[in-house]
UniProtKB/TrEMBL annotation:
Gene source species: Sinorhizobium numidicum
Organism ancestry: Bacteria, Pseudomonadati, Pseudomonadota, Alphaproteobacteria, Hyphomicrobiales
Annotated Gene3D superfamilies: Ribosomal protein L25, beta domain, Ribosomal Protein L25, Chain P
Record-annotated membrane-spanning stretches: none
SUBUNIT field: Part of the 50S ribosomal subunit; part of the 5S rRNA/L5/L18/L25 subcomplex. Contacts the 5S rRNA. Binds to the 5S rRNA independently of L5 and L18.
Record's keyword annotation contains Acyltransferase: no
Pfam families in UniProt: Ribosomal_L25p, Ribosomal_TL5_C
Annotated region described as Disordered, given as residue ranges: 1-22
Protein name as annotated: Large ribosomal subunit protein bL25
Keywords: Ribonucleoprotein, Ribosomal protein, RNA-binding, rRNA-binding
Presence of the UniProt keyword rRNA-binding in the record: yes
Length: 206
């Protein structure tokens, strides 16, 4: 479980809009909004450098942060951020207020383990990942860093469903109406075709 938090300094924004946002970015700041917890949205500005470092460090969307807004410390979880499609710098961030009792929906990454213990992969099969992450409903104070999928013993044609994954205590999939697929062990490229050709040759000889 991710218990680590970090703190970011921020200042309130009196003006909003495209012109104000462009001016902030020229001054090394990112416009952002804090919303939720039945309170009015709060427009703030953050250091571009500090936010970019946290995004690139990984786990940005699954780690609770403390934002110091002019001395008021607000616990938040990043919910969305926008990147410039050309220059790849952060343009805007949305934060959700959270408390110790908050439940949140987060995209939790899926990690695959013991590939070397999968007969299907050792025989040349391919791990076909259907979901690289799974949306989970969790406590804000107990967000899993990742879900672990054990590939031990899996053969070509086997599938891994969410029911096969050991979920952290208190974590439930947002999709609850079906046992959705996480990954499959697919046949090697050309494997099916070669088998069909072999069968056709056998039939011709017969």
């Amino acid at each position: 479980m991710s218990q680590t938090t970090y703190e970011l300094k921020a200042e309130t924004r009196e003006r909003v809009g495209k012109g104000s946002s462009r001016e902030l970015r020229r001054n090394g700041l990112i416009p952002a909004v804090i919303y939720g917890d039945k309170q009015a949205p709060l427009s703030i500005a953050l250091s571009t450098k500090d936010v970019t470092m946290k995004i690139h460090a990984g786990g940005f969307m699954t780690t609770v942060a403390v934002i110091d807004v002019n001395g008021e410390k607000i616990r938040v979880l990043p919910k969305d951020y926008q990147l410039d499609p050309v220059r790849d710098f952060t343009m805007h961030v949305d934060f959700l207020r959270v408390t110790k009792d908050s439940r949140v929906s987060v995209q939790v990454p899926v990690h695959f383990e013991n590939e070397e213990k999968s007969p299907g992969l050792k025989q040349g099969g391919v791990l076909n990942i259907v979901r690289h992450d799974v949306e989970m409903s969790v406590s804000a104070d107990n967000i899993p860093e990742f879900l672990s999928v054990d590939l031990t013993g899996l053969k070509v044609g086997d599938s891994i469903h969410i029911s096969d994954v050991k979920l952290p205590a208190g974590a439930t999939p947002v999709i609850a109406d079906r046992d959705f697929t996480i990954a499959t062990i697919a046949a090697p490229a050309g494997g099916v075709k070669e088998e069909e050709e072999a069968e056709a040759e056998g039939e011709a000889e017969a």
